[in-house]
Amino acid sequence: MIAPKTAPPIEIEGKPLTGRKVLIIVLAFFGVIIAANVTLMVSAIATFPGLEVQNSYVASQKFDARARAQRALGWDVQASAEQGGVRLVIRNAEGAFVTPQVLSVRVGHPTNAAHDQMLQFIPDADGLFAAVALPRGPWRLFVTATAADGTEYTSRLELLVR
Question: For residue 71, what is the DSSP state?
Answer without folding.
Answer: H
